[in-house]
């Protein structure tokens, strides 16, 4: 059995600074939203949107942001490799699931009624 290679992520001080700037911009956007309440909704939402977009931009320039983008691209690539069922196959499997649910519901109902009869009528002698 081969040993899996361990991957070490190295976070540089520049990446840490970019993440710190992103967090500060996000906090600044929230603060600006509440501090600009007297200026009106356009000023509030404008400041919030601009600062949140700047925070997102700062995050995506850091190594973690680039890794997130690579992960998203790889996920899309893997999704394209999936063999999706045809409409007929999907309908058949849905029918099987519904049939199984009905059978299980009947089984559980019969089990419940049988236990109810055994406990109340046979063991305890309560007649209804």
Automatic annotation (TrEMBL):
Cellular location of this protein?
A: Membrane
State which residue ranges cross the membrane. 19-36, 42-62, 93-111
Superkingdom in the source lineage: Bacteria
Question: Keywords on this record?
Answer: Cell membrane, Membrane, Protein transport, Translocation, Transmembrane, Transmembrane helix, Transport
What is the documented function of this protein? Essential subunit of the Sec protein translocation channel SecYEG. Clamps together the 2 halves of SecY. May contact the channel plug during translocation.
State the PANTHER family in the record.
PROTEIN TRANSLOCASE SUBUNIT SECE
State the oligomer form and interacting partners.
Component of the Sec protein translocase complex. Heterotrimer consisting of SecY, SecE and SecG subunits. The heterotrimers can form oligomers, although 1 heterotrimer is thought to be able to translocate proteins. Interacts with the ribosome. Interacts with SecDF, and other proteins may be involved. Interacts with SecA.
The family assignment reads: Belongs to the SecE/SEC61-gamma family.
* The protein, known as: Protein translocase subunit SecE
**What taxonomic ancestry is recorded?**
Bacteria, Pseudomonadati, Pseudomonadota, Betaproteobacteria, Burkholderiales
This protein's gene is called secE
